[in-house]
Amino acid sequence: MKKIFRHSVFALSLAPVLLCTKISAVTITVQTDQPGVAINRGMWGIFFEDINFGADGGLYAELVKNRGFEFPDPLMGWIKIFNNVAHGEISILDEQSFDAANPHYLRLESEGGAPLGVANEGFRGLGVKSGEAYDFSAQVRNVSGAPVLRIDLYSSDGEILDTVRLKDFSSGWKKYAAVLHPKTTDAKAKLYVQIEGKGGVDLDFISLFPEHTWKNRPGGLRADMVQVLADLHPGFLRFPGGCIVEGSTLAGRYQWKKTIGPVEERPLLINRWNKEFSHRPTPDYFQSFGLGFFEYFQLCEDIGASPLPILNCGMACQFNSGELCPLDQLEPYIQDALDLIEFANGPATSEWGAKRAAMGHPQPFHLKMLGVGNEQWGQQYIDRYAKFAAAIKAKYPDIQLVSAAGPSPDDDRFKFAWTKLRALNADIVDEHNYANPSWFFDNTHRYDHYDRNGPKVFFGEYAAQSDRVVSVKNRNNLECALAEAACMTGLERNGDVVRMASYAPLFANTEAWQWKPDLIWVNSLGVLLTPNYYVQKMFANNAGDATVPLQISADAAKLFASATRDHAAGEIILKVVNGADSPASIGLDFSGAKKIAAPVSVTTLAGGLNDENSFADPAKIAPRQTELNEISPRFDYTFPAHSLTVLRLKAEN
Length: 653
Ligand code: AHR
Known about the structure:
Helix content is 17%, strand content 32%. By secondary structure, it is α+β, with helices and mostly antiparallel strands. Helix 5 packs across helix 6 and helix 10 runs parallel beside helix 11. The protein starts with 5 loop residues before the first strand and ends with a strand.
């Protein structure tokens, strides 16, 4: 077999590899004239959980931590500014509060000496950028005198970045606002709120948001973080987790109805990851629900992802208390699910549709799927799932339900769940898998033998662990990313069974994570994309709507492939993972094709197995784009060592 293409565009580092002309011992045959099976074009999606400061301190762009003084230590995140010539009081009160659901507020009283007040440190760093505007706001009530409120942004080394003043406060609670323009960029700025002059004020819900948020929505989401999600073109977004759905106890479970309506009225809840790991304590981790269910649905709509909310099914996390809601008391949980469907899809005249409309979205959110429980297991789960399924299907037969298969992909809990869920004719079963890279390389044929007529699979949480599950030594390195890619070729080849798949967890704040690896790392100023992110992106941006049958002619070490057809684009997409330590010269045979139109686009992710990206070297591992011209239906291609390659081509049969 003779190489008959020329490469173009970005050929430098790949040139020696592509110019290889030796006859290949292994051929990948892509049968372009054979029918494949229809697959879900939106099979590659994202899993969001408020873990690792994913929401507060992450996606939700609020810069003030503990803005409502509702943490158990009401001044956590704040320091008192009270120098030795100041005279007055700084106190936390809860009488005649601004909001009954969040009753605490701050009182500042001064006898007229030096300014006094509080300063906020943000979420382990309050990041501000020069050239950008920041909206300060607070609920304020005058208590005595006519004090002035002085708002400063300070840099981490004590320089004032901007100052504004507010005055003439009313005697009742009222929102006051001002805009700050920091003169320099700082990852760890501080927001000072002080009173000048004699008198007193009450303050609550002290907030600072960048004006530049996603779609510039006031009080919105971090634009840089949403952008990298949008860039994935995800087929779906699962929210809000993860174990956070379950809670350590039922009282601590996620309750979507408490996350909608005015943000000030959403009651704060301790984040279940606050105390989960003694080696990674996060005492300042709470859920403000500024990112609540309305915002999740809106985010899905913004980025073209199908919404997949997961609800508590009357079971707290079985790794924690395992608390159960008795079966005969499950009705409010089930009602929450029915009401959620109405909130998402019901007419604006319906009870819950009206709440959606009141929040600015009279049109439905087109919810088609709903998860019942997160990572549950045992008969207790099956009993609860069955009750949910009966009630939901009776009212909304078209809603596809996602059910749980426990935390492992192959233990007794998993087998039990599958037996029961199959008998219950479940729609989609959620499988979770955190394992070493070798598991992912070794299980690429896992779904080849699944029952084509049984429930579909949601490979809902997975990530290769370079060390072991929950180890702080886990890395987002290329080896893990390629292991995931190899596994994903198997998911894609079996796209008639595997309806959806998502990596987990999604985000981690570099200063406040509990779990690694994670798909995207963030600090207070920016995002860092991992090799794993690029694997997800290369698959999701190159999804098809049908498989194309494919064979690999001989056993080749760590060589994996899948092919799909994108009918709209008229293209065949071939994905190849070479996990071996040396380049692999492979014959590519697009059988049935008479001609392949030039150019063929080639995207390659390659590097050393231990390579990782970092804020200092963010593009160490990143996809590179090339093109092939003058290509025939049979040619040799040399895949670099440790690589994922995606070829898109138009084959004429
Ligand atoms: O992704 C982290 C956690 O792993 C999820 O919350 C849980 O579902 C799984 O155990």
